[in-house]
Amino acid sequence: MHFQVCRNYYGYGYPCCDKEGDPILLSAFGPLDVEGLVKSISSYDYIRTSLKHLEEGMILAKQSAEKKGEPYSQLTMVVDLNNLNTSHYTYKPFTYSYLTLLAIFQENYPLAFKKILVIQAPSVAQYAYTLLQPVLSEHLQNMIEIPGGWEERLFELVDKKDWPAFWGGEGKDPNGDEKCPSKVVYNEGPIPESYYADDKMEDKEALTVYAGDKRLLDFEVHTPNTQL
After folding, report:
1. 132: phi then psi, degrees, rounded to nearest 5
2. What is the pLDDT of residues 102-124, one digit of tens each?
């Protein structure tokens, strides 16, 4: 089930290379149904899948460097924030996983990207970025661009003919699909409830306690000196 959710609803791909010949990671973060994702897969699976996508790009970057005869290459990341909503930064189960992923990335992959370009950012994106800034390293902040005229900036980095038409370019799959599903996973719809995890514990309740937080629970003790 985890594989199907990530394969069908976790929007990402490597549609083409930038003008320097290095791979571009396209992350369709805005359309992601974060609440449905949390109900369908574990935090561990989300983080593991995200790092797997990054590792795929690093392999492509290594191949790019070898082809150009250079010691190393870095990725360009394009983040599509179309349809971003408040759930992306207020739904605690997801934000906890995302911040954990971000910490792992900054600690272990600080040089993976040379540029992170945000496109189709709605008005709430700037507020979300302001909330995120305190946990971003200065190095990472210097890489992030959120331009108003994103198309002009995007095509300074990538040839329009190579970029998927759905995101403003001219590229299409052989069958004419502008989203280039042969290279990019993209699905705007919410994750169906049929994908939601079933722990077969109808009489139980799940409780998440975040770092620095606490919960007071009441237990009915039937046996004296019982230890929890």
Report:
1. -80, -25
2. 999 999 999 999 999 999 999 99
